[in-house]
Amino acid sequence: MSEPTREADTERMTATLAGVLGNTTGVLLSNLDEMHAVQDFIVGRPLMTHERIDGIYDVTPVLLAQFPRLAEAEPPSLKRNTLAETMAACTVWVESVSRHSGYPMQVEVRRTPNGSSR
């Protein structure tokens, strides 16, 4: 059994709740850069385009271990007439998840140097 990871060995980044939710739900709720930044950080390197879908599957368990109340978050139907309406619905939903889960709109994501969560 390996020794526990010391707190000093844990790397942290601030991410938007929308970027985290995008990875845990698979729904683009903000811009791709936010989702990709979370994936790249947890994996420990920039993912290539063809790795992004598998990246979601890799990072989701890590994120849900850190933010377990997000496991219950089901994105709403996003069928709207315009892009502006769709983005507004996403923003409202993310704010609702923040209120109900207690997680702020900006969260601290952690990873250990080997790319796993604690």
State the distance separating the first and last CA atoms.
15 Å
Average pLDDT taken over every residue: 86
Order of helices and strands: EHHHHE
As for the number of domains, it is 1
Gyration radius, in Å: 15 Å
Q: Please give the share of residues in helix.
A: 40-55%
**Share in β-strands:** 5-15%
Number of helices: 4
Order of strands, widest sheet:
1-2
Would you kindly provide a brief summary of this structure?
The protein is mainly alpha-helical. It has helices at residues 17-25, 32-43, 52-66, 83-101; strands at residues 11-16, 106-111.
What features would you describe in this structure?
The protein has 118 residues and is mainly alpha-helical. The chain has one domain. The chain is 47% helix and 10% strand. It contains four helices and two strands; from the N terminus they run βααααβ. Strands 1-2 form a two-stranded antiparallel ribbon. Helix 1 crosses helix 2. The protein is globular, with a radius of gyration of 15 Å. The two termini are 15 Å apart. The N terminus is likely disordered.
